[in-house]
Amino acid sequence: MFRMVRFRRDKEAAYQSEQFKRLEHPQRWLLLAGGAAYGLAGIWTGIALGDISGLLTVASLALLAATLLLWGLTYTGFVRQRLELVPLLVALMFSLHLIVGLNAVTDSGPLRAAMLFGALAAFTTLMSPTVQTALAAVVISGLVVAVGFGVVLPMQGVNIDPVATVAIGGPLALMIVGLAVALDHARRESFAYKHELARRATTDDISGVSNRAHIHQLAQNEFGRARRYKEPLSIVMVEIDGFDSILENAGPIALDTLIQVFAGYCVVVMRHCDSFGRMGPKRFLALLPETPAKGAMVLATRMCRDLAALDVMLEDDKLNFTVSIGAAEAHPNDKWAGDLLRRCAQALDDAIDGGRNQAVLSHMPGTLTQDNAETAPVMTDSAAQMMMPEGSGDLRQSA
User: Does 93 share its domain with 224?
Assistant: First the structure.
C-alpha cells in the first residue's frame, strides 16, 4: 500500500518536474505577451477616453511594471521551482486591471465583461503546469470579478447586469475548465508515451536491465568520466553457460525465468552507482566505476560461486546453471571504451576455453600474457573479503 502511494507520488513529482521544464520558457513569453496586450490596451483606452492621467492609465502602467518584475523573477531559483505561482499572480493582477478597465469604460456590457474574463481564464490556463493550478487561477479570477461586479463597480456608479454576465460567463467558465482538464490529459499522455518510448529504447524486455545500445553508451560515458578524473574503472562480462542446451531441454519460458532470476541477482549484488545490461541472448555486461581490478575479481568470483549454488525453481522442476566471467580494468593505453570491452571479451573467452564456471582477469595492454591460471588465479574467500571494494552491495558483503 505504502509502496503504491510512494510510486504514485514519485510519478506525479516527475510529471510536474517535466511540465515545469517544458513550460518554463513558453510561460515567460506568454507572461510578456499578456501583460503587453492588457497594459497597452488599457493605456490606449485611457488616451481614447481623454483621461491620460486617469486611474486606468496608471493601473495599466502598474500592470506593465508588475509584468516585467514577475518576468524577471521567473529567472530566479525560487520562482523557477514554483512555476505554479505565476498563473495565480497573473490571474490576480490581470483581474484587478480588468475591474479598473470596466470602471473606466462605463458603457461596458455583460458580453464584453464576460469575454474579457474568459480571455483571462484561457490565458492563465495555457500558462498553468497542472490542472490544479489552472482551476485555482480560474477561481481567483472569478472571485475578483465577482467582488468587483457586486461591490466595487456599483459603488462607482457602474452597473453591469450580473445575471446576464453570469449567463454568458458561466458556460464560458465551464469551457475553460474543460480546456484545462483536456490539456492536462493530453500532457499526461504525452508524458507517459515519452517515458514509455525511452524505456523501450534503453531496456531489455525480458531481463528488465539496460539493452545493448544503452549499456554501450553508459560504458563510453563511464570510460570518459574515469579518464577525465583519473579514477579506476572495471567492467565484468558474464555469459550463461550451456545457454543453448537449457533452451533445448527446458524451453523458452524456463530460460526467460532463469534470465530474470540471474538479472535480479546481479542488480541486487551490485552498488547503486554500477550499471548492468544485456549485450546478447546469453551475455551481460556490468560497469563498476571507482573499482580496481581486484575489486572486480572479488565480485566476479563471488558471482560464480553464488550462481552455481542457486537453484531456479520452475513449475515442475528446478534448474541449476553456472556462468563464466571476464573482467578488465581501464588502462591509460585504452583509447576508448571499445578497447576495454575487447580485452574483457577476450578474458571471457579465456574463461570459457578454460572450462567455464570461473572468472578470468584480462591482462593489461602492453604486457606479456601468461597462462589463464596465472593471470586470474582462483581467489579464496578470505582474500575476497580482504580485497572487497568499499561500498559494495549487501550480497557482496554477506556472501
Answer: no
- Residues 193 and 231 occupy one common structural domain: no
> How many residues in the chain?
399
Rg of the Cα trace of the chain? 33
Looking from the CA of 369 toward its CB, the CA atoms found within 13 Å total 11
251 sits in which H/E element: none
Nearest to 327 by CA among 383, 370, 385, 377: 377
Q: In this structure, are residues 341 and 286 in contact, taking their beta carbons and an 8 Å threshold?
A: no
Residue carrying C-alpha cell 593471470: 375
Q: How many domains does the chain have?
A: 2
Q: How far apart are CA 293 and CA 272, in angstroms?
A: 19
Q: How far apart are CA 135 and CA 142, in angstroms?
A: 10
Contacts within 8 Å (CB) and 24+ apart, 48-56? 49/104, 49/105, 51/104, 54/104, 55/100, 55/103, 55/104, 56/100, 56/101, 56/103, 56/104
C-alpha cell of residue 100: 479598473
347 and 284: one domain? Answer: yes
> Taking a C-beta distance cutoff of 8 angstroms, is the pair 344, 328 a contact?
yes
- Exposed/middle/buried for residue 353 (C-beta within 10 Å: 0-12, 13-18, 19+): exposed
Are residues 385 and 250 both part of a single domain?
A: yes
Judgement on whether residues 65 and 196 belong to the same structural domain of the protein: yes
**CATH code of the domain in which 278 resides:** 3.30.70.270
Q: What is the pLDDT of residues 75-123, one digit of tens each?
A: 888 877 787 888 899 999 988 888 888 887 776 777 777 788 888 888 8
Q: In sequence order, which ranges of 128-242 are alpha helices (DSSP H)? A: 131-147, 153-155, 162-202, 212-229
Q: Three-state SS for 233?
A: strand
253-299 residue pLDDT tens = 999 999 999 999 999 999 999 999 999 999 999 999 999 999 999 99
How does DSSP assign 58-122, residue by residue? HHHHHHHHHHHHHHHHTTSHHHHT-TTHHHHHHHHHHHHHHHHHHHH-TT--HHHHHHHHHHHHH
Does 317 fall in a domain? yes
Give the structural domain span for 324.
Answer: 212-398
Helices (H), 230-371: 243-250, 252-269, 293-308, 337-353
Q: Is residue 95 part of a domain?
A: yes
Q: How many Cβ atoms are within 10 Å of 48's Cβ, its own excluded?
A: 9
